[in-house]
């Protein structure tokens, strides 16, 4: 395969990965959803080999699970994995904030203001998918502002996996990420109060994790037989 053909294949595989990751992050594909290759090929006008490569890449990133006789399904992270992802997010998001200076904030001011405006608009309506997308974009925007490509790539993966965790474990149907908290973090960064911004982000992530039902010490889940008998 020539260099140009290889590059085209890589771009096409990445396009499919981006489409599937976006649908998962926006809760349009739920944990456990089957990812039928033929349907992806048709919907994205894609090559079947490219779809298979994309699914394999997503499986390596723990966003998709490929099971014998079932094919690919959207991953269903355990409570333990959820806790580990939040530990990773604290490390990565602290590192991202450490690199952001008032000069960075000034350079990105127009995009920051536009983002906060879109956040406020989203949280004023009842479109859950839009609210989730806008609030999640805050964390990804910080990654862009930092300018660290490696941290940004790691965060993008963690954010998709976090969306699966929220789908499975959030205690209520209201996203707990708040636009006011985001604005305060940006304000601290603009003022050069980097340590304060880090502390605010850690508290913010603590609050997000506290909204998840991850207590596996509760009584074991009843069997389907028992549930039906009690209904």
Automatic annotation (TrEMBL):
Transmembrane segments: none annotated. SMART domains: FCD, HTH_GNTR. Residues 10-77 form the HTH gntR-type domain. Keywords: DNA-binding, Transcription, Transcription regulation. SUPFAM superfamilies: GntR ligand-binding domain-like, Winged helix' DNA-binding domain. InterPro entries: GntR_C (IPR011711), TF_FadR/GntR_C (IPR008920), Tscrpt_reg_HTH_GntR (IPR000524), WH-like_DNA-bd_sf (IPR036388), WH_DNA-bd_sf (IPR036390). One of its GO terms (molecular function) is DNA-binding transcription factor activity. Signal peptide: none annotated. This is GntR family transcriptional regulator. It comes from Paramixta manurensis.
């Amino acid at each position: 395969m020539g260099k140009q053909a290889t590059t085209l294949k890589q771009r096409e595989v990445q396009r499919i990965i981006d489409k599937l990751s976006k649908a998962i992050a926006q809760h349009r594909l739920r944990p456990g959803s089957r990812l039928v290759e033929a349907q992806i090929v048709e919907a994205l006008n894609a090559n079947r080999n490219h779809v298979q490569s994309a699914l394999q890449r997503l499986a390596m990133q723990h966003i998709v699970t490929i099971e014998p006789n079932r094919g690919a399904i959207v991953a269903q992270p355990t409570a333990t994995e959820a806790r580990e992802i939040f530990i990773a997010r604290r490390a990565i998001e602290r590192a991202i904030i450490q690199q952001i200076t008032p000069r960075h904030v000034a350079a990105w001011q127009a995009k920051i203001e536009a983002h906060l405006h879109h956040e406020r608009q989203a949280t004023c309506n009842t479109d859950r998918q839009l609210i989730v997308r806008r609030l999640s974009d805050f964390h990804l925007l910080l990654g862009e502002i930092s300018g660290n490509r490696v941290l940004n790539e790691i965060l993008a993966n963690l954010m998709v996996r976090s969306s699966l965790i929220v789908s499975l474990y959030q205690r209520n149907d209201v996203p707990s990420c708040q636009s006011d908290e985001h604005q305060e973090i940006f304000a601290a960064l603009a003022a050069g109060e980097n340590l304060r911004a880090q502390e605010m982000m850690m508290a913010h992530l603590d609050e997000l994790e506290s909204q998840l039902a991850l207590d596996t010490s509760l009584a074991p889940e009843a069997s389907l037989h028992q549930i039906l008998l009690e209904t």
